[in-house]
Specification:
With about 300 residues, the protein is of the alpha/beta class. The protein is about 30% helix and about 20% strand. About 10% of the residues have low confidence.
């Protein structure tokens, strides 16, 4: 509570008044040298039960401002235009993503895209009907759920298929391209001739070897041994189709002594299976050289492909 005392002026060190009402000078000669003046302000006391008095006038306005709290001092500014634009863009992007996800889900499971027709290309050893029959379990399955792996798994029992690719043709078609193994030789088994590839996989059979332009390997792997058969088949697999069609048979005394016979009786000394691509190019070039009737070539030796020999 503020002090209620009134201002007082208390002289200190003054001497009492002399006769005649004049003050006596002090020792220094000044009449009021040691006089000290003090003051205090008297503040009227407000009644504790009178709230109107507390809030009246300037003091009342300050109290009202204090009672209104910090919210009264906050100024609301408009939201920046860039922030509003970013928020709208985010809403649009989220909406588009949701719509795309819904469309994709509908496409993946929609019966409107169910498989009904299969077209097959690239077959020579197989027929399109064989491939279509193998892919029958895919009928009625939505196209987005069919991939190359599904098609390859169903075609695994067909040994003629080396690889396969599939392409959806909406709304209900599937185009299948088959890459078959390439036969490189004939192997006689009894009265039949089997077409085999470079891995020795039996691809087909025929009773007439003349109907197939492939060289003959007598007995196959069972007669000449697995290693010799693989070496011979690897050589045949490296030859171009036009050269392969000119061969009558192939043989190997060892893996380093592979020999080929042309249909006109000429012999090709191949050697081992190393550098077979280079040897194939050299042999193809030698066979294109015009024949000399006076000096016919009987042997083409490409065992050292950088120094071929004809004799």
């Amino acid at each position: 509570m503020a002090s209620t005392r009134r201002p007082t002026y208390t002289p200190t060190g003054r001497k009492g008044p002399a006769a005649g009402g004049r003050s006596q000078p002090d020792a220094a000669g000044s009449p009021d040298a040691d006089e000290v003046i003090s003051a205090s302000r008297s503040v009227p006391v407000q009644a504790p039960g009178n709230p109107a008095a507390r809030t009246s006038g300037t003091g009342g306005r300050k109290a009202a401002a204090a009672d209104s709290g910090p919210a009264a001092n906050v100024v609301a500014f408009p939201e920046p235009r860039g922030k509003r634009r970013r928020r709208r863009l985010l809403v649009v992007v989220c909406t588009v993503c949701a719509l795309v996800a819904a469309l994709l889900a509908g496409a993946v499971y929609s019966p409107l895209l169910a498989l009904r027709t299969v077209s097959v290309s690239g077959t020579s050893l197989l027929t399109p009907a064989q491939v279509q029959a193998a892919l029958e379990p895919l009928q009625g399955k939505p196209l987005p759920q069919i991939g190359d792996d599904d098609v390859s798994r169903l075609l695994e029992p067909l040994v003629q298929v080396k690889s396969v690719s599939a392409e959806a043709r909406p709304p209900s078609g599937l185009a299948v391209t088959v890459h078959e193994r390439l036969p490189v030789a004939l192997v006689k088994q009894g009265e039949q001739y089997q077409l085999v590839d470079v891995d020795g996989v039996q691809l087909a059979t025929t009773a007439d070897p003349a109907s197939v332009s492939l060289p003959l390997i007598d007995g196959g792997a069972g007669a000449i041994g697995q290693d010799l058969f693989k070496a011979t088949a690897a050589v045949l697999g490296a030859l171009p189709a036009d050269v392969l069609a000119k061969l009558s048979n192939a043989s190997a005394k060892s893996v380093d002594a592979v020999e080929l016979k042309l249909v006109d009786g000429q012999t090709i000394v191949w050697g081992n299976a190393s550098e077979k691509e280079l040897k194939a190019k050299v042999l193809a070039a030698l066979l294109k050289v015009p024949a000399d009737p006076k000096n016919p070539v009987r042997v083409y030796d490409v065992s050292v492909p950088r120094h071929p020999v004809t004799r």
